[in-house]
Amino acid sequence: MLIRSSSKIKSSEITSHSVYQARRDFMRDMGGLALAGLAPAACSSTEAEGQSKKTQEKRFAHLERSPFSTDETPTPHSKITHYNNFYELGTGKSDPAKYAHRLRTQPWSVTIDGAVEKPGTYQLEDILKPHTLEERIYRLRCVETWSMVVPWVGFSLGDLLKRFQPTSKAKFVAFETLHDPEQMPGQRSLFSLQWPYAEGLRMDEALHPLTLLAVGLYGEVLPSQNGAPIRLVVPWKYGFKSIKSLVRITLLEEQPPTTWHLMAPDEYGFYANVNPDVSHPRWSQAKERRLGGSFFENLIKQETLPFNGYAEQVAHLYQGMDLHQHF
Ligand code: MTE
Fold first, then answer.
1. Most ligand 1 atoms within 8 A of CB, residue of 1, 83, 85, 184 to mutate
2. For residue 279, is it within any domain?
3. What CATH code is carried by the domain that includes residue 202?
4. Which residues contact 95 (CB under 8 A, 6 or more apart)?
5. In this structure, which of 15, 235, 271, 305 has its CB flanked by the most CB atoms within 10 Å?
6. Ligand 1 centroid distance, CA of 209 (Å)
7. Measured between alpha carbons, how far is 327 from 317 in angstroms, rounded to an integer?
8. Residue owning the nearest CA to atom 17 of ligand 1
């Protein structure tokens, strides 16, 4: 996505065995990550053993494969983690991986406020405790016309929201990324987006079971360049809606302002549902390049599907809306 310069301008409180196990696994996984980050050399005598132990410590155990998963082949791990959009860590596709080490993801807290009965700021571990993590393999379609297939680890946002008891005023949900220019060099740039990166969903979109909070990738703790420690994934919308490194979730009566829509309202809509029939003002959205294949495979573009292939599950949410106007 181009930044135009100014001149151009679930939740259950019942502790079943699987919930208990996921909780234990998560605590161990997060703790393991910290250990690996703080004292990797102390883990083993050789570098190779150390690496293998580090990998094990980052892995989630006993992940169920969600029925929402696509059976398409996942994009290679190296591509998913080295071809990123995370403007807080730079505008180049390789910048996020390069600067990811700057992001401190522990401890991490998320504020949940606005139209909820139980507002507050909660440690990530407490937010995650009651949820069973599962693997969800989703297509990701960027507005820039590239796409990937990503094996996320996470749970439905709706399950989390219900725990905090939305009031009748909750019509929309606003999301915010961490704002800390010391950790995120991209936030120091003058010709840049407005920070913190902000996104939003209508309440029914947020409660839809496909809408995911991801904490992992390829069975491991989420790499920082992909939005650690917790990010949103909305698979039927262009990738920019899937906001990374979340620190605040606010339930609102009104539609919230969102980063890319503020930047270029005629180019990036609030809804941003993947739609091959509605071109971006500067390029067509009819086709996409699926990344991660061979050089020749990457040259061939494939048809983009309405709602990124999730029409059966979500098209009803937009009945009666003119999707050309609400792009
Ligand atoms: N979230 C934040 N905070 N900052 C960003 O720059 N980029 C968005 C989205 N979430 C972005 C963000 C865009 S444009 C895309 S396509 C996806 O993240 C890319 O996610 P990935 O890097 O994990 O593939």
1. 85
2. no
3. 3.90.420.10
4. 84, 86, 89, 186
5. 235
6. 21
7. 14
8. 239
Quote the CA–CA distance of 184 and 180 in Å, as a whole number: 6
Q: Give the tokens for residue 184.
A: 């995120």
* Angstrom distance (rounded) from CA 234 to CA 154: 12
pLDDT tens per residue across span 111-135: 999 999 999 999 999 999 999 999 9
Q: How many domains does the chain have?
A: 1
Tokens of 130: 């009651």
Please check whether residue 45 lies inside any domain of the structure.
yes
Q: Whose CA is nearest to atom 4 of ligand 1?
A: 86
pLDDT (tens digit per residue) in 46-102:
555 555 666 667 899 889 889 999 999 999 999 999 999 999 999 999 999 999 999
Range of the structural domain that residue 154 is part of:
14-265
Q: What is the pTM of this model?
A: 0.87
Question: Would you say residue 301 lies in a domain?
Answer: no
State how far the Cα of 74 lies from the Cα of 42, in Å rounded to an integer. Answer: 34
**Residue 3 covered by a domain:** no
